[in-house]
Amino acid sequence: PHTDDPLYAQFDSEHTQVAAGVAIFHLKSERVVVCYHSRDEYWFLPKGRKDAGESVERAACREGFEESGYRNRLLPIPQKHRQPAPAAPLPTGSIGPFTTEAVWMQFAPNGRRTQYILFWYIAETIPPDDVPLSDELQLHSSTTPYIHPPPFPPDLKLEERLAQDPVDYVPQRHEGTGVDEEEAQYQSSLLPIAEAMEKLALTSNVMVDVVRRGWEGVLLRRDIEE
């Protein structure tokens, strides 16, 4: 997909919706989470509006969990971006040459008077030891708080991360994580990268490129760390 020319635009708060989406990779099996709308019959990456007061990054992981059922956290990868380096290391975000910046941003009208602004992020399924099946997690809904997993450790290499998943380990897909009737229509699965991109191409070239950039970032990070 092409990148549009820069533009001038302004929207006040009552005419703006900020949203986040995510490509969730299971690194060990080289697969990515893709959702399917069982009623309208199309494939997509999980996304949705952020809650008031919520960071965009946290919203990406929350929406990824609610719409797909897979617990996830942002994955720092090498990527080109235009943001300045932080003055001091951050607990989440930049780790040396790796960052959790959004890989795409989209504008779309939502009706005649509302501007929808969507940021796309790269994430991974979390290790088995970081999946507490607490009552809060099992009962997650629109009225119970989302439990955010610990961030990707700044000193952890990808090869070390791969070793945390046992052989033939399949990340757990939690049932009933959708928060409304619409999300109850969603199905999700882990698909090989090429198959996922083929299915997403029927819906959005940007979603395809989110997956492409994410996986290329994973491979490049592994090369850098060797």
Outline the structure in words.
This protein has 226 residues and is an alpha+beta fold. The chain has a single domain (13-225), classed as Nucleoside Triphosphate Pyrophosphohydrolase (Alpha-Beta Complex), CATH 3.90.79. Helix content is 23%, strand content 23%. The protein is built from 5 helices and 8 strands. It has helices at residues 56-68, 135-138, 158-163, 193-200, 205-225; strands at residues 16-26, 31-37, 42-44, 47-49, 72-74, 104-109, 115-125, 186-192. Strands 1, 2, 3, 4, 5, 6, 7 and 8 form an 8-stranded mixed sheet that branches. A hairpin with a 5-residue loop joins β6 (104-109) and β7 (115-125). α4 (193-200) runs antiparallel to α5. The two termini are 31 Å apart. The mean pLDDT is 91. This is Nudix hydrolase domain-containing protein.
SSE diagram, text form:
Blueprint: E1 16-26, E2 31-37, E3 42-44, E4 47-49, H1 56-68, E5 72-74, E6 104-109, E7 115-125, H2 135-138, H3 158-163, E8 186-192, H4 193-200, H5 205-225
Parallel strand pairs: 1-7
Antiparallel strand pairs: 1-2, 1-4, 2-3, 2-8, 5-7, 6-7
InterPro entries: NUDIX_hydrolase-like_dom_sf, NUDIX_hydrolase_CS, NUDIX_hydrolase_dom
Pfam families: NUDIX
Organism: Rhizodiscina lignyota
